[in-house]
Amino acid sequence: MLRPGELGAEEREHWRELRAKSHAPRNPFMEPEFTEAVGAVRPGARVAVLHEGGERAGFLPYERGPLGQGRAIGLGVSDRQGAVLRQGALPDPRRLLRACSLSSFAFDNLEAGQGLFTPYAAEEHASHVIDVADGYPAYEEALRVRSPKFLRTTLAKERRLGRQAGEVRFVFDEREPAALRTLMAWKSAQYRRTGRRDRFAQRWITGLVGRLAVTRTPECTGTLSVLYAGSRPVAAHFGLRSSTVLACWFPAYDVAAAKYSPGLVLHLRMAEAAAAAGIGLLDLGRGAAEYKDSLKTGELPVYEGAVTCWGAGAALYRLGREPARRAHAFVRDRPRLASAAARTLKGAARLRRG
After folding, report:
1. 3-state DSSP call for residue 148?
2. Is residue 198 exposed (0-12), middle (13-18) or buried (19+ Cβ within 10 Å)?
3. Using the 8-state DSSP alphabet, how is residue 162 labeled?
4. What predicted TM-score, i.e. pTM, was given to this entire model?
5. What is the pLDDT of residues 22-78, one digit of tens each?
6. In this structure, what DSSP letter does residue 22 have?
7. Which fold has domain 129-300?
8. Can you tell me the distance from the alpha carbon of 24 to that of 90, in angstroms, rounded to the nearest whole number?
9. What CATH number labels 4-125+302-349?
10. Using an 8 Å Cβ cutoff, are 121 and 304 in contact?
11. What are phi and psi of 156, to 5 degrees?
C-alpha cells in the first residue's frame, strides 16, 4: 500500500501499459495522473500494488475513511473507477480489502468489464457517449438523420449568436486561468439554482481541478474548452482527455446568453475538435439530461455498489448508504416523481437565495 505520490516512475509506466492492453476505452480517470492528483488533496488516498508470481499484477486506487470504510478514488467526482489489472489476474476481492485494511469498498461509476467488483454491483447505469471515430462530418450527418430539428435549431442559434453578440470563436484547449475561474463561478451558480450541493464550495474539488488543469501527459490532460462571442466567453467545459477519449466533466454557460443555447453549441464544437485531434469518443458521463439525449450516439454501462466484509465498518456503510441509494433509485426510475423532486430542489434553492 502506497500513497499515490509514492508511486515510482516504473510503477506508473507499468500502470499505463496495463491500461493500454485493456479492452476498455482509455478513460483518463483510470490513469495514474488522476489518482496522483486526488492523492495531493485527499489524505486518505492510497494505491494497493498487487503482485502475483513475484511480478506486479495490478493496482487498486482507493480512499480510506473512518473504520476502514473504503471508496473508489475520487468518488463523487470520478466518472470511471476500478482496479487496473493484468489480464487474467483476479484476486479475491474480500481478501484484497482485508489486505488494504478496508471494511468496504464503494463505487458509483465502476468501469464495465471489472470482473473483480461487478458481481457486487447493486445498479447499472448508462454513461452517454458521442462516437466521432469516423470523423465529425459523419457524426453531424448521423445527427441530421436522427435529430434533424435539434441540429438545425442549434446551428441556427450559433449563427444568430454570431450576428447579435459578436463573432463566434471556439478554443479547444484554453490556457487562460481567468477562463477556468469563470467556468467555476458559472457552475457554482448552476448548482445553487438547481438546489444541488455546490461542488466548488469544497476545497478539495477546486484543488483537484486546479492540479488537473496543468496536467499534460499523453493519456491524461486537463482540457478547458471555451466558446466565445466576440471577446466574451459564453460557455465553457473542463474535462480530461487521453489519446482516444475526452471525458466530459464540468460544463456550464452564461445564463445571460441562454437563448442561444451556447452549451449545446459548445458540445458540437468540442466533438468537432476532438475528432480533428484523433479522439474517437466523448464520454458525457451518467445521469439523465436532455442535452445528453440529444447529442449521444450510444451508451456504455457503469455500475454502482459496494463490496463489504464482516465488521462494524461494513455495517455502518450499509446503514448509512443503502437507504439513501435505494431512495434515489426509487425516485430516478419514476420520471414524474423525479421531475417533481427536481422542481422541489429548485424551489428550495429560490427560498434560500431569497
Report:
1. helix
2. middle
3. H
4. 0.88
5. 999 999 999 999 999 999 999 999 999 999 988 999 999 999 998 889 999 999 999
6. S
7. Aminopeptidase (3.40.630)
8. 16
9. 3.40.630
10. yes
11. -65, -40
Query: What's the pLDDT tens digit per position in 92-149?
Result: 999 999 999 999 999 999 999 999 999 999 999 999 999 999 999 999 999 999 999 9
Boundaries of every domain in the chain:
4-125+302-349, 129-300
CB atoms within 10 A of CB 88: 7
d(CA 47, CA 36): 9
Residue with cell 447579435: 164
Q: What is the residue-wise DSSP string for 273-311?
A: HHHHTT--EEEEEES--HHHHHH-SEEEEEEEEEEE-SS
The pLDDT of 142-168, averaged and rounded, is: 97
Q: What is the average pLDDT across 159-167? A: 98
Q: What are the E-state strand segments in the chain?
A: 45-52, 55-64, 69-72, 84-85, 104-111, 121-131, 168-171, 216-217, 220-229, 232-241, 245-253, 281-286, 298-308
How far apart, in Å, are the Cα atoms of 185 and each of 236, 253, 350?
11, 10, 18
Please check the confidence at residue 198 and state whether its pLDDT lies above 60.
Answer: yes
CA distances for 31 relative to 115, 211, 221, 277, 317, angstroms: 19, 15, 10, 20, 27
